[in-house]
Amino acid sequence: MAISVFWDNEEKTLLRWEVKGEWTPEEFREAGVKTFSLTTMTENEFHLIINVNHTTPPPFPLPIFQEALRSASPQLCSVVVVKADDFSRSMLQTLKHHKIPFVREGRLHIADSMHEARHIIAEVSSNRALAIF
Predict the structure, then answer these.
(1) Cα(128)–Cα(133) distance, integer angstroms
(2) What is the distance, to the nearest Å, from the Cα of residue 21 to the centroid of all Cα atoms in its chain?
(3) Angle between helices 25-39 and 62-70 (to 10 degrees)
(4) Read out DSSP for 13-46?
(5) Alpha helices in 1-133 (DSSP H)
(6) How many CA atoms lie within 13 A of 54 on its CB side?
(7) pLDDT digits (tens, 9 = 90+) for 73-114
(8) Closest by alpha carbon to 66, among 33, 24, 28, 121?
């Protein structure tokens, strides 16, 4: 499978998709099913990093991403996509113009590196903690 799904920390608050090589819409959906399976084992809210630095999307991937974001778990706080190329950035920016609540709420982020992705998540987590008080 071109998409590996796993917890990226012991607290089970950071899930990671590591995408390598070519992938298909079916593999993307299977990763979603595995994500659902992992996240139903915990009541924690979680963040998702999708590292696509080592892949290219299949033709016309926008509908696949739209479907996934529309059906996102209520436990999902944010998604950070790690990819530095202009095409991927443009495609993800396009999603921000669609009427998908998850995206409109500012919970979809783009990072150039895993380090930046972790920084974004730390910032989002900090802001969410402050909002509780």
Answers:
(1) 9
(2) 18
(3) 20
(4) -EEEEEEES---HHHHHHHHHHHHHHHTT----E
(5) 25-39, 62-70, 86-95, 101-104, 114-132
(6) 10
(7) 889 999 999 986 787 778 777 877 777 787 778 888 989 999
(8) 28
